[in-house]
């Protein structure tokens, strides 16, 4: 068993933190790591040199945290996620180190602007939306609340695509965030593992049965190599590790084939391996796309489990103490294959019998569900699964047999219930259900808002919940207040510190002390001034990127999230069309100037989502250029939404659009970010909106529309969207304008099918909620016109959303699920 080097044998070199010393360190790094003289250095050179200096200071804390965990024998948490939307790290790291002012001053002394340097850092393309950003917030909060943790994922070379607009259409381009290197990561060649696919399975011995040990001989093998990024908690109390895997072939080049002239064939294995870490969420509309996605999920799960078991054996000698020292959290179904992989490792490699391995697996794993959409609860065709992972298919059948026998004999489940819980979907094409596998293999299954958790029990996991009634629990999502308040909204933080002191910086719950200032006219004016400056910053960004001028005095109405029909960007733009018609028809009214901002990416194969983006841009082109509107309404779809763009848009929002079909948004975290930064929410009673309403008060949020139960009732008993449309003049006129080509004169039929879908079925209840949504928007106008009514509400949103800190969420996970941390 390898032990770490005694720390007293290598005393750490003392570091100085004065601006003068930090400035000297930056120049030294520029010279010896970048190879540049200060007189010829470019901004990107200064960015890297500054990052290296910050990283050096992190390393001291990182190694200290690692040694402390090893020596104390604390339980470690391993967070498996296909996404980590970490964003830029420089400001986050230096702020949590407590060196932001010193670094800023150090750069000033050598004539370099910190903000300009920080803005040059690439935005890591390691995630898509809320799930990946939640994982990033959780990693930072685990370090902040002193939970020893590793995050495991894939080091995507391109990650999610870079979004551009071509004549209003989304165009997907490779995101080249790694083109010039990543100063925050460390390659760990010693942490490399073989991962196999395909091949044959041979039994070891003659007993047979589900407890039989087997030898899997993969046909293909790749090497997973680790790249580590340190994750700094607030005040650098702990530094944890984000470990991302890249894929390499066993044989980079088949030399015989190359010398024989088959140059492409010689590199085939190399290209096949590298594809595993090339792109996040390859389009899975084709068999090849499905196969690549399953390969990715197994690749990172298998490498991560090998790493976890290796670390445990190195420290403790054997695996019997694994449940006491290891907690593995599955972030959605993407890493669910880890359940079967753990069973394979314990049975085939480490000689545990089936029942003992299964008991240990369930004690170790827990699973977070993020969706009630059946298609998002991944499943894989049995032939594909069996071809790629033959041993795992055997184990899936064995696990399924064990659970189904228990349900049949001990719980008297009928045939319908057995079909519902089975790991093998038998209706139509036979498929392996990954959500059920994650549920079976975990001792805890949590939802991410109170409503979502209740609906899990009643819908997608009803029969599983009946079988195991103690497993489902709620852990409402949270956001890290360091990035989503302290770093993205420094002027508001300065005002808060001056008004209520610094306590909220350590405990976001202390923001509640702001409540007593909500009706103070002087504080309202200062709060409004901060909002105005944030709006100016966004207006300048939109002007630079899009050439669109917007007035910061207008209401900034913002919807930023993945483009999906259930999130209802379509409802937003249809209402904007109706509002546009009213402005032109009734010029005598005192309309509130409004800018509606949209941002988000549509999955490349999601036709309707991409059509909605095109519609928004087509409508924007017409409205923004219509002099009859007199600038009272403008539309802006800001391309290439990412963390850095969100950090500008969130503090600038007056109105936060959280308008998903009730019962379909698991939680949302954008709703929390906007409220924390003093935006009023307009939304349905969906996801965490329900809990935000409870915390900020009914008078400080604008709720409209059907409830989740009402949506379910309409779907079950009949929903007649055509009748609703015909009874709503504004809605009918807006849809007629869309379908007749008013906004698409180059192709009048472009949106006919989109509109026809609303007439025919309208699964997402746009028509049912339209009139209520439009009325709610007019209530918002009335409030915005009266500053004495508006600002107390927005201030109370900031005051009462401290509960939605991810620190609170992680403390609940740690104490109630993982049994880890202090």
Automatic annotation (TrEMBL):
Report which superkingdom the organism of origin falls in.
Answer: Bacteria
EC number(s) stated in the UniProt entry for this protein: 2.4.1.1
Q: Which InterPro entries match?
A: Glycg_phsphrylas, Glyco_trans_35, Pyridoxal_P_attach_site
| Cofactor(s) of this protein | pyridoxal 5'-phosphate
Q: Tell whether Transmembrane is among the UniProt keywords.
A: no
Cellular component (GO) terms are: cytoplasm
What PROSITE patterns is this protein classified in?
PHOSPHORYLASE (PS00102)
GO MF, any single term: glycogen phosphorylase activity
Q: What is its main location?
A: cytoplasm
Keywords on this record?
Allosteric enzyme, Carbohydrate metabolism, Cytoplasm, Glycosyltransferase, Pyridoxal phosphate, Transferase
User: Which processes are annotated in GO (biological process)?
Assistant: glycogen catabolic process
Which family would the database say this protein is a member of?
Belongs to the glycogen phosphorylase family.
The entry's function note states: Phosphorylase is an important allosteric enzyme in carbohydrate metabolism. Enzymes from different sources differ in their regulatory mechanisms and in their natural substrates. However, all known phosphorylases share catalytic and structural properties. Allosteric enzyme that catalyzes the rate-limiting step in glycogen catabolism, the phosphorolytic cleavage of glycogen to produce glucose-1-phosphate, and plays a central role in maintaining cellular and organismal glucose homeostasis.
What is the protein's given name?
Alpha-1,4 glucan phosphorylase
Its lineage opens with: Bacteria, Pseudomonadati, Pseudomonadota, Alphaproteobacteria, Hyphomicrobiales
